[in-house]
Amino acid sequence: MQWRNTGETYGLISIVxxxxxxxxxxxxxxxxxxxxxxxxxxxxxxxLPELHRGGGILVAILLVLRIAWRTFNPLxxxxxxxxxxxxxxxxxxxxxxxxxxxxxxxxxxxxxDGHALSVFGWFxxxxxxxxxxxxxxxxxxxxxxxTWLLVLLLLLHVGGALKHHFIDNDNTxxxxxxxxxxx
Length: 183
Known about the structure:
Blueprint: H1 12-35, H2 47-72, H3 82-111, E1 117-119, E2 123-125, H4 135-167, H5 172-176
Antiparallel strand pairs: 1-2
């Protein structure tokens, strides 16, 4: 398998970025939904938010890498009608935008008190906006709504890939697994 994309297939870097982000986002969503059920005395009450914040920063890093890679590496041609390809392009842009907004709202939740955000103890991100009244609560509401919008958009994305695979029988899904078209 080649590292770079071609006109027909995704390269290894695009595939690894795609699936690592997909796995991380799904884990963070599940972790976030579980975290909000914990009470203060639960043994994981302090540890899980720390993991969630660090994972969110990893998503941000992967997102920047993915956008940079996509910018300087040609994408394979999209399959489908002009309307489907336009919808696919819009969906990808919205996914990136939502991920960015979710990361930013999570950052605001974490730094609203003026303290830096520690990322797994590796480095700290300073609090750039703090001291605003109800910032943590407002950012939390935005974060919550955006994560559910992301889930809906991901369902559309997965549904489109499955439609291409099972109904259109084209190469859309296979190439994101690095599998060449079967005759």
